[in-house]
Amino acid sequence: MHSTPLPPAVQQPAGSRSSWAFLIDIAVFLFVFAAIFGIYAIGRTWLGPVHPQARISQNPRDLPLYALYSLVRISVAYALSLVFALGYGYLAASSRRAEMILIPLLDILQSIPVLSFLPGVMLAMVALFPHRQLGVELGCVLLIFTGQVWNIAFSFYSSLKTVPNDLREAATIYRFSRWQCFAELDLPFSTIGLVWNSMMSVAGGWFFLMACEMFVLGKRDFRLPGLGSFLQTAASAGNTRAILWGVAAMIAVIVLLDQVIWRPIIVWADKFKFEQVESSAGTQATVLHLIGRASFLIRLYRLLFLPFFNWLTLMFTLGARRAAETFSAPKQHKLRRALGYLFAAAIFVGVGFAVFHAARELSRLHREDYVELLESAALTFLRVNTALILGALWTVPAGVAIGFSPRLARLAQPLVQIAASIPATALFPIILLFLLRLRGGLEFAAMLLMLLGTQWYILFNVIAGAIAIPTDLKEAARIFRFSSWDRWRFLILPGIFPYLVTGMVTASGGAWNASIVAEYFHFQGRIVSTPGLGSAISSASDSGRFDMLLASTLIMASVVVLINRLLWRRLYRLASSRFKLET
User: Fold this and answer.
1) Three-state DSSP class for 53?
2) Are 150 and 106 within 8 A, CB to CB?
3) How many helices (H) and strands (E) does the chain have?
4) CA distances (Å), origin 151, targets 320, 345, 358, 504
5) Given a cut of 60, is residue 278 above it in pLDDT?
6) Is position 421 within any domain?
7) DSSP tag of 49
8) Residue 208 sits in which domain range?
9) What is residue 524's predicted lDDT score, i.e. its pLDDT?
10) CA-CA distances (angstroms) from residue 35 to 29, 42, 166, 223, 254?
């Protein structure tokens, strides 16, 4: 992995350079101050009295405040998702015993739709904070979290499984502690995949925002001010003008995030590419260049962040050594064994309790209900696979083209980010106005919405895989004059295969998740639906039928886990054994 040096600064007169640096410092200071003030204002709102049924305005003047609310929820959910995914993926990849439990569990969790988490999450948060807005807000954040975290966890796990063996051996020779291996090997090697899957996860957060900020749970109506609730209110009322205003506001936020956050991070992540020859065409980011000239941020980094990270590394390293000195190998083995038994006992009790209550709920359903759910599962299964095939047909070549060309990436990345982040559900009412007039239009609309919600998982992972292919291998293919077919056969497909598998797995789970909004929709005061498992889940959530919600969720999870066991898990093993990059 090489380190890309910063481009040399443009030679300017000293006075001009100092004045520009001063202006940049002022801009950075104002931005930090505005961020702190925004966090303070949001905190006051969250800690204030509960308002579960806030009135949602359709006035465009309220969009800046609504955008701030939604951005904070998505940011908090992403921060929680990243921390959880790093811990979960590391544990699954570093322990064979943990992997046997955690990966099937991850298959189940990522197959459960957002609305299926709704009753338990929201009721638990409201019960914990009964008189504070914090309970409803945390419930919304955790719902967004369930739509973001699994994609990042799969990406980190698959990256750790494909770390080259010679790098592992080098870390062992140099006696790296576990923390050093994690911070100096695992994280850098996984950075490119993490960055692009983080972009996809945040885009998924925008996609499910409408379902998370405004929903009905039995007889209780929850409404939180934000872009998602604004768009859903406008869609329910058929207010096309308000929908377009809401989409425009969302695009503005996404473009701002792309320029200020994602593009600098992508440029920074490029230095973690695993290669021996540095690419001659590097990516650039204006914001990153400006940050490099901001003395205020540099001083803040040197005074606060750098000492903190050094202290953290020291504490983890010393802690591991002291633990090794305090506990002998037999004692460590006994301690791990005891903790394993306690953990297994806790899981056994929890699962037993859940199974008992689930069986009591499922006993209320009749045989006809289960037959109907199985038929619905078959219909949704066909839609999901059709969406995956159609999505892969264009995202694989497009992703490779973007990943191989930094110039094309600079042009396409913001467009892809915007397209992936715009909730298709926001534009769905406009689409329905035309498709409902056609024969089979609702079926086509459901398929289109499912495709729009899942194809980006494949595209972002393929882009990450194409970027991660070492430049020296690309140069070798050019020197040996590979034909287009040979380049795809011997370089591109093997290089992107682990990323493609991750993209297909998460896209499959995303397609099943998207069925809850693709097959069931509130439109102009009425419900528009097509038969399917997603429609059954949404209908059960709307009507408060928790027995039907549980049964349909279990069937969906079972189908997804079965597919993962029979297909995707075998492809994961193939990717980690045959297509692992070695020096």
Assistant:
1) strand
2) yes
3) 26, 4
4) 30, 29, 27, 11
5) no
6) yes
7) B
8) 47-293+365-577
9) 67
10) 10, 10, 44, 25, 17
Q: What is the DSSP string of 202-214?
A: HHHHHHTHHHHHE
Angle in degrees, 0-180, between the axes of helices 240-257 and 406-421, rounded to the nearest 10? 140
pLDDT at 176: 83
* Continuous segment of H or E residues that includes residue 526: strand 526-529
Taking a C-beta distance cutoff of 8 angstroms, is the pair 206, 422 a contact? yes
> What does the pLDDT average to over 298-326?
61
Got the DSSP string for 475-514?
HHHHHTT--HHHHIIIIIHHHHHHHHHHHHHHHHHHHHHH
- Packed helices 133-161 and 14-46: angle between N→C axes, nearest 10 degrees: 120
Q: Rounded to an integer, what distance in angstroms lies between the CA atom of residue 329 and that of residue 577?
A: 31
Closest of 404, 573, 576 to residue 492, by C-alpha = 404
Beta-carbon count within 10 A of 78 CB: 20
| Residues 369 and 536 sit within 8 Å (Cβ to Cβ) | no
Give the C-alpha separation, 147 to 423, whole Å: 13
CA angle centred on 495, ends 492 and 500, rounded to 5°: 95
Q: Which amino acid is located at 438 in the chain?
A: L
Which residues lie closer than 8 Å to 548 by C-beta, 6 or more apart?
365, 369, 536, 539, 540
Phi, psi of 220 (to 5 degrees): -100, 135
DSSP string, 83-145: HHHHHHHHHHHH-HHHHHHHHHHHHHHHHS-HHHHHHHHHHHHHHHSTTBHHHHHHHHHHHHH
Q: Classify each residue of 389-422 as buried b or exposed e, where b means 16 or more C-beta atoms within 10 Å of its C-beta.
A: ebbbeebbebbbebbbebeebbebbbebbbbbbb
* CA 414 to chain CA mean position, Å: 17
% helix, strand, coil for the chain, step of 5: 80, 5, 15
Q: Say if 12 falls within a structural domain.
A: no
| Residues forming a β-bridge with 521 | 528
Q: Tell me the angle at which helices 569-577 and 493-518 cross, rounded to the nearest 10 degrees.
A: 160
Closest CA to 319 of 188, 167, 180: 180
Residue 355 lies in a domain: no
Q: Does residue 359 fall inside a structural domain?
A: no
User: How does pLDDT run across 455-481, given as a tens digit for each residue?
Assistant: 988 998 899 889 888 888 888 888 888
Is residue 363 helix, strand or coil?
A: coil
Q: How many domains does the chain have?
A: 1
CB count in 10 Å sphere of residue 40: 10
- The tens digit of pLDDT for each residue in 414-458 reads 788 777 767 666 677 777 777 777 777 778 888 888 888 789 889
Retrieve residue 283's tokens. 């990516």
- Can you tell me whether residue 580 is helix, strand or coil? coil
CA 204/CA 197 separation, integer angstroms = 10
CA distance 567 to 583: 29
* Statement: residue 382 has pLDDT above 90: yes
Cα 357 to Cα 235, 398, 546, distances in angstroms = 37, 48, 12
